[in-house]
Amino acid sequence: MTAHLTARPARALLIVPLCLALAGPVLAAAAPKATGKERPFEPPDLYASTYRPLPSRPTLIRNATVLTAVGDRLEGGSVLLQGGKIAAVGREIAPPADSVVIDARGRWVTPGVIDAHSHLGVYAAPEVDAHSDGNEITGPLSPGVWAEHSIWPQDPQIPLALAGGVTAQLILPGSANLIGGRSVTIKNVPGRSAQDMKFPGAPYGLKMACGENPKRNYGAKGQSPASRMGNIAVTREAWTEALAYRQEWEDYQRKKAAGKDTSLPDRDIEKETLLGVLDGKILVQNHCYRADEMLEMIQLAREFGYRITTFHHATEAYKIADVLAAEGICAALWADSWGFKMEAFDAIRENVAMVDHAKGGCAVVHSDSAQGIQRLNQEAAKAMAAGRRMGYPLKEEDAIRWITLNPAKALGIAGQTGSLEPGKMADVVIW
Description:
TIM Barrel, alpha/beta
């Protein structure tokens, strides 16, 4: 029997979406493939995702204005969800037997919103010292810490983000340290542990930071780094040691293969994370405001042979939008937040639009805020309006990418979510 429902008007000014995030597919986190050159201690992921979707009936949403994030809008469009995935997108889709049919006339349907910069769970509510678990401020280099080991799954801010249409978010360590540790992508679902919420198959990120925060935190203690040149020097030393660590293991493997007597190198979990970046398995998420510092970080990445996936906050990204596009680096940005410290001073409202306008540009609207994450749709709308005033012919079809497909690219999950395409996760919002 097919059940017919109508999407009713929202009472609040901000329309609360119907989120179908729980209907995502089950994917097992794949263990690294043995190549003969892997370090012997690399086991399958002991902290693999244990996320499981709830059982659901086929669901047809129809008569909506559909923004797919990969093409033109569909007026009077339909989206069919089945088996935890998007089964079809179009105008005339017949409902399967025993399906739920939602009449979304007068509503918008979009992919689930993705926040590329969040600290929910690691700075949980209420905001007291006991819940302050996002920065390991014991030294400027802490690549061995993982944000997921600080996440409190019961943080009441997480369901509020879901009410704002956010179906996935990147949880990052803070920016007190030059290298702050691993980030993790979660789905906004109830869970007893961070692993229950962990986005299956999503790569880890490495939080890095340049600029004021690290030099302020450690300069105040009379230790390095106390300046921007100290920031670069300490970071370079970390990568130099990581390369030496890799060489140590390669020497061990070569001697072992030759039948020579050799001892196993000591394991270093901090350098394991850095080698994950050098091997291309962990994505660099780099907190950086100023254009000149972003260029310095690009040069540093070239020196040691890794890539930066995203610059976060990136107040001055508009100054180097062409460079970021050419390098394939996303910029995660606010619509209109700046001036709260010196490196956040030289900002413009058109930042998002200018990054987006560069050929191949990847603009992302992010929150970095327990309040902002609840209304990322409005933040994207503000950025779109600013771009229109500047003369860019931006449409809703463009702006929706800034909070869906582009952050999915920045998190390495665009093959699974971020757009309304058959085969992707059924992460869908009705507005």
